[in-house]
Amino acid sequence: MHSDLNELVKMDERVARQTAEVVDQVRAGDLTRSTPCADWDLGELLAHMTAQHHGFAAAAAGRGEDPVAWQHPQLGDDPAATYRASVDAVVAAFAVDGLDEQLFAVPDFGPDVRLPAVQAVSAHLVDYIVHGWDVARSLDVPFEPDADAVRAALDVAEQIPDGPERREPGSPFAPAVPVSDGAAPLRRLLALLGRDPDA
């Protein structure tokens, strides 16, 4: 895991803004498209991504226990604008002084878990590289996230257990997909987290 919080925050901002560039290409008629997330169409995926940005922003401010902060929003008539506003919110929240002193309450990790900022930002970074790819794959458009960010996310993904719990309902990741050792970092990251890079 990358230990420099300031560098992580910068990488996370670059990736979040790159996902917004992909989401800018979404039109209302695209929201029912399928995605690599089997349980979600594109509209549901975007609602999840938007909610997670707001939730992580709340957690950075010490309000992660509030379930309202993590609720899926209505995307409205301009889903891309709604999403971009959530990106701005989390970027601003992660840019505050003293972030390294904050413990993050993130419901996905359990009701009593409090993550140090480095772990929380790392989790956010992994999530948005993968979900950015999900959106791009749904739209059939390119997505080439920041290379340094991908390498940092890969370091995190290599530490996530690939056990039977990944087959349980509600698991954030499907079982890992085989990929060659010499595969590019993004392909290895996706495969480790249960995405088929060639699907």
Quick take:
The protein has 199 residues and is mainly alpha-helical. The protein has 6 helices and 2 strands; from the N terminus they run αααββααα. Helices cover 48% and strands 3% of the residues.
Fold blueprint:
Layout lengths: L4 H19 L18 H19 L18 H16 L8 E3 L8 E3 H23 L7 H11 L27 H8 L7
Antiparallel strand pairs: 1-2
Helix pairs in contact: 1-3, 1-4, 2-3, 2-4, 4-5, 5-6
GO molecular function, one term: metal ion binding
InterPro entries: CHP03086 (IPR017520), DinB/YfiT-like (IPR034660), Maleyloyr_isom (IPR017517), MDMPI_metal-binding (IPR024344)
Structural write-up:
One of its GO terms (molecular function) is metal ion binding. The protein is mainly alpha-helical and 199 residues long. It has a single domain, classed as dinb family like domain (Four Helix Bundle (Hemerythrin (Met), subunit A), Up-down Bundle). Helices cover 48% and strands 3% of the residues. The protein contains 6 helices and 2 strands, in the order H-H-H-E-E-H-H-H. It has helices spanning 5-23, 42-60, 79-94, 117-139, 147-157, 185-192, and strands spanning 103-105, 114-116. A hairpin with an 8-residue loop joins strand 1 and strand 2 (114-116). Helix 2 (42-60) packs parallel to helix 3, helix 4 crosses helix 5 and helix 5 runs parallel beside helix 6. The longest helix is centred in the middle third of the chain and has 23 residues, at 117-139. It starts with a helix and ends in a 7-residue tail after the last helix.
